[in-house]
Amino acid sequence: MDFSPLKAALADVVAIPVTPFAEDGSIDVANHRALTRRLLDGGVRIVTPNGNTGEFYALTPDEQRLVTELTVEEAAGRATVLVGVGHDVPAAVAAAEHAAEAGAAMVMVHQPVHPYVAQEGWVDYHRAIAEAVPELGVVPYIRNPLLAGDRLAALADSCPNVIGVKYAVPDAARFGAFARDAGLERFVWVAGLAELYAPSYFATGATGFTSGLVNVAPAVSLDMLEALRAGDYVAAMKVWERIRRFEELRAEEQSANNVTVVKEALSVLGLCRREVRAPSRVLPEERRTEVAEQIAAWAL
């Protein structure tokens, strides 16, 4: 298969949508559709339902399938859908097969959460998923700094549908080395730690970056992408300075508030309830005030 259109789609702002909850705790279907349309109307062209900002690990399998279907329906003809899958191998394969049936183009394989991950076992895990959906592009989500680049290359040798990588180790030098060990031109490299790391990762080989911020301010994320594509790091860092505190709030306490801050911002804008599921938790009042101040400064 020719995966070049999917590779081109990955080299962009890869939006990780939130999953809005209704007052009774269920997924707010109407609001989910509205938030997805807002992303698309804002210029987003690739979305990842069931990503970490979508609270993947707090959703039931039925809810994950619902989120996939809602996103595919809304994105039809307007954006590429990259569905997050994970957990044990049978669950990840079933989710990937459902993504294919629903009409998604790619799957992002969440980092294995097993406490004991061998490098060859990592290859086996991803191979099982990729082989189950040979028609889909497959994007491993890498957060393990010990994984060697040649293991990714070995995976792609047997699974040509492994076409991109979401790399989320907070070390630009390690990323640059890993990408070159795996094959810089062989994969699309997506900076998986969002806007704060995007400039440094682009400097060492990335051509796309993930974003949760894009839920709140699509134009801001797209401004950074435009600057990075042009090699204008001065302009990119001006965007970086603008959103720095917001992203720092998300990163506090080992990213405990990653989703919470985004939902709080959407709540300030009247677009989404602030509620999140455990083990995440709603922000304390003083942090809510700070998020509101950040949003006001952006003049959205």
UniProtKB/TrEMBL annotation:
SUPFAM superfamilies: Aldolase
CDD domains, alphabetized: DHDPS-like
A single GO molecular function term of this UniProt record: 4-hydroxy-tetrahydrodipicolinate synthase activity
Stored Gene3D superfamilies: Aldolase class I
Annotated residues for binding of pyruvate: T53
InterPro entries, per database record: Aldolase_TIM, DapA-like
Keywords: Lyase
Active-site residues, as the UniProt record annotates them: Y141 (proton donor/acceptor), K166 (schiff-base intermediate with substrate)
Domain of life of the native organism: Bacteria
Family assignment from sequence similarity: Belongs to the DapA family.
Protein name (Swiss-Prot/TrEMBL): Dihydrodipicolinate synthase family protein
Source organism of this protein record: Streptomyces parvus
